Amino acid sequence: MKFKAITLAMGVAVCATVAQAASINMNLSGGNPGGLWSLLGAGMDRAVKADDADAVITYQATGGGFANLALLAANRTDMGLVHDAEVKLALNGQEPFKAPVTNLKAIGYMYNWAPMHFFLKQSVAEQYNIDSLDDIAASGAPLTIGINRSGNITSDVALFMLAQAGLTEEKLKANGGSFVRAGANEQGDLMQDGRIEMATNGIFIRHSSFRAIDENTDVVLLDVPQSVIDATNEAFGTSSFTIPGGSYSKQPNDVQTMALGAMVVATDAMSDEMAAKLAGGFLKNIDEIRNVHKAMNALSPELMVSQKVLPFHPGAAAVYREAGLIE
């Protein structure tokens, strides 16, 4: 369905569903101040204000998705930005959660294009004949591998993918290597200084941290076996993704991997009317969210409803259904 048609449908849907609703006045728990999630919060605020000047979405900086899910579980925030993989862990009661979180409801998917990258120094790749993630374990290479800090979902995903490819921490240690915990920008510095040979993370293609690695160090982007991608998607509720050839200086061919996505999540304590008003505002005024950063250009109504990890809030689902986006 074309967006113009969806917009027309929304005119009916929003009027029918939320005409009696009070103005939105909600908190949105996000991530670091100044990051993409804070920009998304500002875009969402503008989207709901476009229909109601009294509407307010107040962004609150937090430690990120895991922290936001804990706040939602305790009904201490109205909404949170979270990764799909974090939601899957919360629903299953897996670490860091002590029990399943049962009160979560989705409002809308914001993006699904934060692919996992595995950069290896070219000299090491050539020395040990490593082209793919599953070559590392058998190569015997004593690699120092950067993974994100504990509490960041990309570290969990990276460890899982490496283990699926045969490289457990025990195997890596037996080969004389180790994992090094470091954030996105820190990994670039560590690689440039020779303190790690491999960097891993799940962020947008050509994110500044990835550009620094590509521009300052001779690296190759490793292929990921399809079996690893499939297992990761099954475990984390993520989706397959292609990093187009030429995205990085020594990456002539497409690289298949998986990608993390982010969504707005509320709880079952939110009224149907408020959930509908949020979803309607996001859909009708989607350009307010798209325009916060060039990374959000691909946001579409279809993408907003494409997540499969968490049921939509009934109020949001009603709006999407009336817009012809879901059945």
Describe the model.
This protein is an alpha/beta fold and 327 residues long. It has two domains: 172 residues, Periplasmic binding protein-like II (D-Maltodextrin-Binding Protein, domain 2, 3-Layer(aba) Sandwich), CATH 3.40.190.10; 146 residues, 3-Layer(aba) Sandwich (D-Maltodextrin-Binding Protein, domain 2), CATH 3.40.190.10. The chain has 15 helices and ten strands. Strand 1, helix 2 and strand 2 form a beta-alpha-beta unit. Helix 2 packs across helix 12.
Give, in order, the helices and strands: HEHEHEHEHHEHHEHEHEHEEHHHH
Given this structure, which CATH class of the largest domain is correct?
A: Alpha Beta
Domain module count? 2
Strand content: 15-25%
E-strand count? 10
CATH architecture of the largest domain: 3-Layer(aba) Sandwich
The end-to-end span amounts to 13 Å
- CATH homologous superfamily heading of the largest domain: Periplasmic binding protein-like II
* Secondary-structure class: alpha/beta
- Poorly predicted regions are 1-20
Give Rg in angstroms: 21 Å
Q: Given the C-alpha coordinates, what overall shape results? A: elongated
Most strands sheet: 10 strands, mixed
User: Quick check: average pLDDT?
Assistant: 93
CATH topology of the largest domain: D-Maltodextrin-Binding Protein, domain 2
Give the % helix.
40-55%
